[in-house]
Fold each of these.
Amino acid sequence: MRAKAPAKVPEIKGSTYLVKLRIDKRTVITVRNKESLKRWMAKYPDATEVF
């Protein structure tokens, strides 16, 4: 049985600040604003920005 693909989240209009953040070897997340980036970097200090 295959897992259902997650639905695409509509992009927020006017948000031009998008950063991909590599949390660990496999996990990459997209951060949409600077406040979220600060929060994720506080949780995962070894995270690196991927461009």
Amino acid sequence: MTALTLAIPSRDRPQSLQRCLASVARAALAWPVEILVLDQSVQPLVMPGPWRIIHDPACPGLPAARNRLLAESQAPVVCFLDDDVELAEDFVVVLLALVAREPEIDAWGPVVECRSRWRRRWHRLLQLGAVRDPRRLTAKACDRPSAALFGCCFAVRRAAALACGAFDARRPGYALGEDLDFFLRLQAQGGRTRFAARLCAVHHHDPGGRAGRWAHLRACAQWLHLLARRHGAHNPASLAHMALALMAVALAGGRAARR
């Protein structure tokens, strides 16, 4: 029986995906794990290996791709990975142990990123609601409950993900904030999530193959509008927040060296 699906949406980033799949294959070796890739590239990928590649260039964006992978999975737990993530060699064994030992938990993270600790903290300020964002101070591996995890690498019980409506496929492209939106709905359904310090991965933050600058700005505007509607009463936009957001853009704009 398959215990875990490692689900990777990808589009036009074969080098990043190849690096990701190499780490996934090492981590999944000898474990009851299926590896699914949803390839949204126009030209289908040819990457032989112990994984199944679903070619679907018509898939409209990241939330829709994750929903497709969720539907294709045959496992009780699905771990969603960005294609620019590398897993530690013990990632799968640690995750399966957590799943068996913690039946009350619905989702686990986090990720150890390339960006520096302070760069990540500034980056959290880009969003309305940053003061209340449960992830805002997570700049290193930690063990603690959280209302949300990072979208680049997290594992969730498949039944819990389906019960909260999965991902919002109305959000086009590689939209900002679809991960936080998902976790807020999971939490509203009574889902429990936590960071797990022993789960280790590296997020390379490869910007290639994503939508152009204007499409990215439209996605930013959509996400800010969503947060303003949902959370504005609790954390309204202000001149101080705008100044912090501009500072965050300046500090997070450069490509950070791997730590």
Amino acid sequence: MSNQTEIGYYGNAWMSFMEENYPKQAAQMQKHGVFENVAQSVNHSACEYYKLLADQYAQQNPPPDDPEAYRSWKYTRDYYIKSAVMRERVLIPRTWK
């Protein structure tokens, strides 16, 4: 198996999702040696989407200057963006054929 840092956070989350919910498909991808490659692709797509959503969020909700308010803003931003990325890019069954 590839190094987890190469697969990334979202790739590892996708692998766990597939193994838990679609074990036959995950086993087939592992058997054919493409499971980690698909996970890397998922991670790349999710990271790009995260950046896009973060930029959009900052445009629609400019960050405050006050440090305490900024922490709250960042927490809210991360909550919304991470949940959207997981729903829309990670927690989706994928096939390799």
